[in-house]
Amino acid sequence: MKILVFGLGALGTVYSCLLQNQGHEVTGVDHEAVVEVVKKRGVQVTGIWGEHHTHLKQVARDLEAIEEDSFDLMIISVKSYETQDVALKLQKLLSDHSYVLLAQNGYGNFETAAQFLPPEQIILGRIIFGSETLQAGSARVTVIADDVILGSPSNNIDMQVLDKLAQTFTQAGIPTRASDDIMRYVWGKVIYNSALNPLGAILEVPYGKLAEISFSKELMDGIIEEIFAVLKAAGQSTLWENAESYRSDFYSQLLPSTAAHHASMLQDIQRGRKTEIDSLNGAIANLGEKYGVETPINRFITLMLKAKEAMGS
Question: Is the pTM value of this prediction over 0.85?
């Protein structure tokens, strides 16, 4: 396959390296500083999936600099607030046989991309393995909680297409399967990230500490309760029947495996970068307003994180 990976951060590095090593022709796009390093050193993946190193077929800082005029698959692995800009740029490379995979965090990426790209060519991914950037073009895979899940929110991509793509990723070393109900999985990740990431960034403690302190635990319980109220009003089901059943799994299974983890939002703030709060708690607050559900805790957390973001580390 001819594959474009737009964004060579931790996730983009993993996908580009493993897919290139599997024999696919991968083109990477990122900022000039990253491009220069990757051109010289290639891309490298270490961690629980072993050690891998390769040079991509091509690396460029913008689409005008690449040789190809179309791709079989284009993977968007940038921050959620960059989705609109990237989707707009990818329009000219989209052919009838192309698919775009959104490999991102948060809620709203599909809706944003669908304003510029045909929904029947957009695949949404629920990615729940952890990877961190060591340096430009080098990433370490630290943990995997479940397979990557691929799906079409609008259910207008044939399951055979999704199954074949899932098999391609699995063969490259990224365990993946397809689902005809992708949003249930996406929301599972949104709930988890919304409960932990902003609070971990604001309080500057690892996730496990948030559950140990009664006050932060109460805030997380409130965040989760509000999200389930919004989802009920929106008619969106999840893998859990209600907030109570989710919290049971959250505290007994989901949180313990990442208890020592520090919030990526805190890392963003420390590096002077914008966070993805608008696609997590901010999105919950906006959906609450849309469906007439009060979300005071999610809105407060959003404002607190934005204040911390504006002040810097």
Answer: yes
